[in-house]
Each structure stands twice: as structure tokens, then as C-alpha cells.
Amino acid sequence: EVQFVESGGGLVQAGGSLSVSCAASGFSFGTYDMAWYRRAPGQERELVASISRSGGSTTYADSVKGRFTVSRDNGKKTMYLQMNRLKVEDTAVYYCNRASQDKYMWGQGTQVTVFS
Prior knowledge:
globular, single chain, mainly beta, 116 residues
């Protein structure tokens, strides 16, 4: 059974940093491009960052470029998102999944709340 367990979210003041993790299981993690997504209150889920299967290529949404860094450890089947210089508008539930159109079932996500 495919499973994503996101963790590491919390409450942080604007300008601060936070790192979230995604532990994947039930599929060949290292053979898929992966991505972080987020859903803010009242909004659609959006793509935040993606990373190639080897980790050698990354892409970012314009809103987080230069502030967020995505990485992965295929041996641990885990993906990370380092978030720096956080803004109030980064407040959302953060999820991980495949980067392609074909998605596995979503996990519970991890809540990130940024206050001013």
C-alpha cells in the first residue's frame, strides 16, 4: 500500500525557517520524480516544488523560488523541503506526491502556520 507521511510542520514567525519531511512507502520511490504541494485555506492545492528521481534537477513555484529548497534521500525513501524567509502567505497544509499527473492517494499533510 502506498503511503505518504508528512511531518515537521508547525507555527513560525514570518522571516523564520522550517523544514518538513515526507516519508514514502509502498512503491519504488527512487524511480519517480516527486513534488511538494500545498493547500491554503479556501484555495486549490498548488505545486510548490518538484525534484527529479535522482535529485539532480529541481523546479520551484515563483512564489517560493530563492526561499525554499527541495531535496531527497532515495535510500531513506524520504523527501525534504527546507523553507526559509517564510511569509504569512506560506501558511498552508503541505503534501507530497508524485510530480506527474498520475498521483497516489494523498497523505494527511503537515500544517505550516506563519504569523506576523
